[in-house]
Input
Amino acid sequence: MDETIFLALLQDGLTTGAIYVLLAVGLLIAFSVTRVIFIPQGDLVSFAALTLASIISHRVPGTLWLLDGLCGAALVLSLIRGRFRALLPYGVAPAALTLACWAAARYGVPTPVSMLLSLTIVTALGPLLYRFAYEPLGEAAMLPLLIVSMALHFVLIGIALYSFGAEGVSTPALTEASFDTGPIEVSGQSLCVGLVCMVMVGALRWFFVRTLYGKALRAAASDRLGARLIGVDHALSGRAAFAFASFAAAVSGLLIAPITPLSYDTGFEIGLKGFVAAVIGGLASYPLAAAGALVVGLLESFSGFWASEYRNIIVFSLLIPVLIWLSLSRGNTEDRA
Output
């Protein structure tokens, strides 16, 4: 392996690793607040890319009808319970978004506007999925929540297959620029991915440290019962956590689709690699999860060069030593009790 190949693989690994950072952070936020391993997060990655491709192709995306259906059900339930304030988030806002998507599909809009519409649709799906799939389970154990996550994953890929078909799609890059550094040519898209990752991580840190709502989510993550006693609404905190996770998935989908074509089911594999990074962080440490995401990206890139047919096996095998180390370091909680 010469210097040019090494640097090219390094660039690819850091680019995909930055995307896995976003997914790992989103998964950790959802898990720390709700104890839900949000497996369908990977499906939302595909949803974002497929939604954007549909709008660019002057078609109304199937994800919009899914969002409208969930909002309609939520509105009916809220009105039955006398919560008329729900008319704005579950009635007026989805109607305005539907009109905007219809106009975009019919008349065409600039790509940035199409991206904004895609981000809005996919991000809004997260809280609704939490409300209907997880919130009714209340304080259920982690195993039922994991089973529900798997069931929801299969439902979503079925909806994606019906709505978008089996063909993969690629979306426009954020920039077509490239920079010749000598040994290799640095892609402008790769730089955009890294920049977006750093901005989002910095914004999330500011939100959780500096804002009242962020501190409320941190309280819900550290002690759910204590947070309830001081007035933090568990349902709202769960929906907010899923909004963050779905937003991270939507951004990841828009960032990776220009690099790798996405179909209705490929997002699941991408989401699993974000989960591997989260496990490296012990499903608790954000810095370790971010470092693990970069390790996963680099391992995937270099293993793809040396043994492409075993790339995924090598990446997912990283879980074995990590789980052994976590087991030995934490010990058996039942024995300590």
About this structure: Residues 3-167+190-332 form one domain. Confidence is low (pLDDT under 50) at residues 333-337. Residues 172 and 321 are 38 Å apart (CA to CA).
